UniProtKB/TrEMBL annotation:
Domain spans labelled PPPDE: 6-146
Name of protein: PPPDE domain-containing protein
Nucleotidyltransferase in keyword set: no
This protein's UniProt keywords: Hydrolase, Protease
PANTHER family hit by this protein: DESUMOYLATING ISOPEPTIDASE, PPPDE PUTATIVE PEPTIDASE DOMAIN-CONTAINING PROTEIN-RELATED
A single MF term (Gene Ontology): peptidase activity
Matching Pfam families: Peptidase_C97
Residues covered by region (Disordered): 164-189
Family: Belongs to the DeSI family.
InterPro entries assigned to the protein according to its UniProt record, in alphabetical order: PPPDE_dom (IPR008580), PPPDE_sf (IPR042266)
GO biological process: protein modification by small protein removal; proteolysis
Length: 237
């Protein structure tokens, strides 16, 4: 008698907890629905990539309740065969190899989905890094991306992503205490100049593209460089 197939599903989480949808247009010049984390669910276990390949019983991951559960299909791969497969790919999914833009949890979910059911996970999840990087304002949120990458590489769950203006530490007149403190929202390195810089980059980008001599990525890079130099955040080269 043939062994019954196992259902495979994709659990989708928004690491921004809704914030990306609210602020992405102002930060990136385009709407981003969420900052996606995914895990593959099979055999009653959720598998995902962070600080190496992780596995926990369904419903017990530190990411809470998924905002979407996507049915990927049915597989005839056995538990033993799947465990062997995970051991085989483990060297490519380690703490050191994690990269939030190029080699992340969604890359892992996509590879595992193809192995189990022969299909990929949704394009809108896989294309998120390109959506972010193709924006002329992408360099402005790189500190946030790097902070998020460090958190996820360690297998931790990020706090709600926030920006707050940079504050001069001398204003408070108080020195930093050596005692541990609750984590604070990440300080925006552009401070109160962010809005003006975003507007200037968007204008410069539009002008460069209108000239018709540069690709979007080239225009974005040059526009950002020129405006950041203008505002004193980069030294002219």
């Amino acid at each position: 008698m043939a062994e019954e197939g196992q259902k495979v599903s994709l659990h989708v989480y928004d690491l921004s907890q809704g914030l990306a949808k609210q602020v992405s247009t102002s930060l990136l010049g385009k709407p981003i629905e969420g900052i996606w984390h995914t895990g593959i669910v099979i055999f009653g276990i959720e598998y995902y990539f962070g600080d190496g390949i992780q596995q926990t019983p369904v419903g017990t991951t530190p990411y809470g309740t998924p905002i979407r559960v996507i049915d990927l299909g049915v597989t005839n791969v056995t538990k033993d065969a799947f465990d062997s497969y995970l051991k085989e790919i483990t060297p490519r999914y380690t703490h050191e190899t994690y990269n939030i833009l190029k080699h992340n949890c969604n890359c892992f979910s996509n590879e595992v989905a193809q192995h189990l059911v022969g299909s990929t996970i949704p394009e809108y999840i896989l294309n998120l890094p390109n959506e972010v990087l193709s924006s002329p304002l992408a360099p402005l949120i790189m500190p946030l991306i790097q902070n998020l990458e460090a958190t996820l590489r360690d297998g931790d769950v990020p706090q709600t992503l926030q920006f707050q203006p940079a504050v001069d530490s001398t204003e408070s007149g108080k020195s930093e205490s050596s005692e541990s403190k609750p984590l604070q929202p990440m300080v925006d390195p552009l401070g109160n100049a962010r809005t003006a810089i975003q507007e200037d980059i968007a204008k410069e980008f539009a002008a460069l593209r209108a000239a018709g001599t540069m690709s979007p990525s080239e225009a974005a890079a040059l526009a950002t460089k020129k405006v950041m130099e203008k505002h004193g955040f980069l030294n002219p080269t």
